[in-house]
Amino acid sequence: MTETRQLLIRGGRVFDHDGDVHQPPVADILIEADKIVAVGADLTQQAGPAAEIIDAAGRLVAPGLINAHYHSHDVLCRGLFEELPLEMWLLYTLPMGAHRSKEEVRARTLVGALESLHAGITTVQDMLGLAPFDEAYLDVVLAAYRDAGIRAVFAPMVSDIPAVSMIRYRDALPPEVQEMLGTKALAAEGQLDFLATQLRRHPAGERLHWAVAPFAPQRCTPQLLEGCATLAERHDLPVYTHVYETRGQAVIARQEFARHGGSLIAYLDSAGLLGPRLNIVHSVWIARAEMERMAAADAGIVLNHLSNFKLKSGVAPVLDMRDAGVRLGLGCDNCSGSDVQNMFQAMKMFCLIAAVSEPEPGQGLAHEVLRHATLGNARSAGLGGRLGAIRPGYKADIILIDLNDIGYLPFNSAARQLVYTETGRGVETVIVDGRTVIKDRRVTTIDETALRREVAGLMRHFIPDYEAVVKARQSALPHLLAAHRRAWQEALPLHRFLGRTRD
Ligand SMILES: [Zn+2]
After folding, report:
1. Cα dihedral across residues 349, 65, 25, 442: positive or negative
2. How remote is the CA of residue 157 from the centroid of ligand 1, in Å?
3. Rounded distance from Cα 190 to ligand 1 centre (Å)
4. Coil/strand/helix, residue 32
5. Kindly report the CA angle at 228 between 243 and 164, in degrees rounded to 5?
6. How far, in Å, from the CA of 431 to the mean position of ligand 1?
7. Is the model's pTM score more than 0.90?
8. Cα 477 to middle of ligand 1, angstroms
């Protein structure tokens, strides 16, 4: 019989959501295989002689961060755009994420995974745009995640209404502009069958988890949404979908979904999706009554302030969401829409937004947002009770932060300095599923130097392709800008002020 692999993390300050979040006490953590089995003072005796030991003296030991919204398909577009409205950004980013070589798909998946790990993200929820809908491509992505050693909540996006439907006043766009955004869609049935087949081919386990991702309600027929609800129910999976990312999408809901009371939440409900499995992503333009409906159904919201700002979508009404009691999660979104996979930035932004929304002093958000980025995001993925905390029985997804980093001089509060000070620079060791994947700030699973060389080679084709796309699509920009402006001028039955709704 082979002995269970043991790992002892000794003498670090262990962050406990329910303990002293400012000055966590020193403790040991004993890990067996993929699970935490004990947390307490001096566990050396409990560990066997063969246990691997990590000396965590002078380190803050925290639960691995979970990114609840990400798309790996456009990682190589990072840094190509200044701030610009989502409608215009789609024009460039959609083609650069689709129909690319398998080498490129592997490389971009690895780059995103490694960037995440370096920043202490141990789980990514990848809502993958998989075009072509081909299992060989899906295999490439899953192999990259497996090789990188990161945990993935994997969800290829499905939709059966063309991409142009994301744009309000699309009918006013010239036909060629509509075609650039996408006027074709796949049939619902084939996509659901594809997903069901992939769930069988790659059963969840170890670091792979599945989710169902209808792209957005306005891009899915009731039949597809109902099929997604059935699939999620049958396989006990969470659901993620984009809702109310832009003001134009709220206008679409109010004007084109009249039979659902002008609400995409009501539309999701009619398809059987409004419930504890559901997570709606963004919700920048959600109405207060819809938040309450979400809260009553135990459905969640995943916030992405970084991309919402960069893509001119607006300010999510975080304070109202908190008041309404909706469960919250946080994500980093596309690499081309926020340019970074970094939950420290996402957490800080969450706190700062609430601050500018409310001139009165608050109760302190740093510890709350750490919960959202760990326990909340685990809950969104249906992994509550298994991820997001350093507790016996939980998965050993743990990060060690170097308290000798200048950002912790002086060390006044773990919670506040993780949220307001940390950039990712202090992340020194990352453990996923009981396995050390970053050691002394270096990835142990992948040859990062070789990956750099490979990406440099790929970019020799990628950049000319991107430049050709920009050139060919330039004529569409004034039309999309006009649509964006018109959506901002349209009256909505709610008024907003810096993150608060005013009904
Ligand atoms: Zn997204």
Report:
1. negative
2. 10
3. 23
4. strand
5. 45
6. 27
7. yes
8. 22
